[in-house]
Amino acid sequence: MKLIVGLGNPGKKFNNTRHNVGFMAIDQLAKEMGIALDQKKFQGVYGKGMVNGEAVYLLKPQTFMNLSGESVRPLMEYFNIEVADLLVIYDDLDLPTGKVRIRQKGSAGGHNGMKSIITHLHTQEFKRVRIGIDRSARQTVIDYVLKPFSKEEEEPIQLAIEQTAKACEAWTTTSFPEVMNQYNS
Predict the structure, then answer these.
(1) Are 60 and 29 in contact (CB under 8 A)?
(2) 3-class SS at 113?
(3) What percent of the chain has pLDDT over 90?
(4) How far apart are the first and last CA of the chain?
C-alpha cells in the first residue's frame, strides 16, 4: 500500500500557482493511474486505486499548506499506512523551475507544509519529490509562490509533473533507490 500526497492550497484562486505544484502532480497521477479523487475526509480530497497490483492512495490536503500534517496523519492512521509507504510531492524555491529532486528523507528545508507533516508524524524519514519553482529576486516569497507560472515556465513545469508521475508509478513495482536513480533530473 502506498500513499502519495501532493501539497497545495485549496480554492480556485490558488489553482496553477507555484505553491500548488503538488496538487497539479496529484491531478496528473489521478488521470494516469485512473484514480478518482472523489472522497472527502481527513480534511482532504483523496482517492484509492490499484496500480500494478499495488493499492495506491492519492491525497490533496484541504487544510491550507501550513497545516498539511492535520490531513496526512489521520488518513495514515485510519488506513494503517506506514511512514515507509508515504511519498510527499511539493514545490521547492531552491531548485530551478522544472528540476525534479527525489529523496528518501530530509528536513523541511523551510517549507511550512513539510514542517507540518514532520511535526504530525514525529519524523522526517519519509520519501519526497521536490519540484523546482525557482526564486524571485523581485518579489517576496509569499507573493511569488502564490502567483501562476509564467508562459515560459509552463512547459518545464508540465515536464516535471509528467516525470514525477512516471516516478510515482515506477515506485509501485521498483525499489525507491532505483526510482531515485532513474528519475532524478
Answers:
(1) no
(2) helix
(3) 92
(4) 26
Q: Residue 107: which domain range?
A: 2-183
Q: What is the mean pLDDT of residues 31-60?
A: 97
> Which of the residues 19, 111, 120, 122 is marked catalytic?
19
Q: What is the pLDDT of residues 162-175, one digit of tens each?
A: 999 999 999 999 99
Q: How far apart are CA 147 and CA 99, in angstroms?
A: 19
Q: How far is CA 16 from the centre of its chain?
A: 14
Structure confidence by residue, pLDDT tens digits, 73-96: 999 999 999 999 999 999 999 999
What gap in Å lies between CA 179 and CA 65, rounded to an integer?
26
The candidate with the shortest Cα–Cα distance to 136, out of 94, 87, 167, is 94
Q: Which residues contact 117 (CB under 8 A, 6 or more apart)?
A: 5, 68, 69, 72, 73, 88, 126
Could you give the number of structural domains in the chain?
1
CATH code for position 179: 3.40.50.1470
Spatial neighbors of 109 by CB under 8 A, at least 6 apart, are 92, 94
pTM for the model stands at 0.96
Our answer to whether residue 19 is catalytic in this structure is: yes
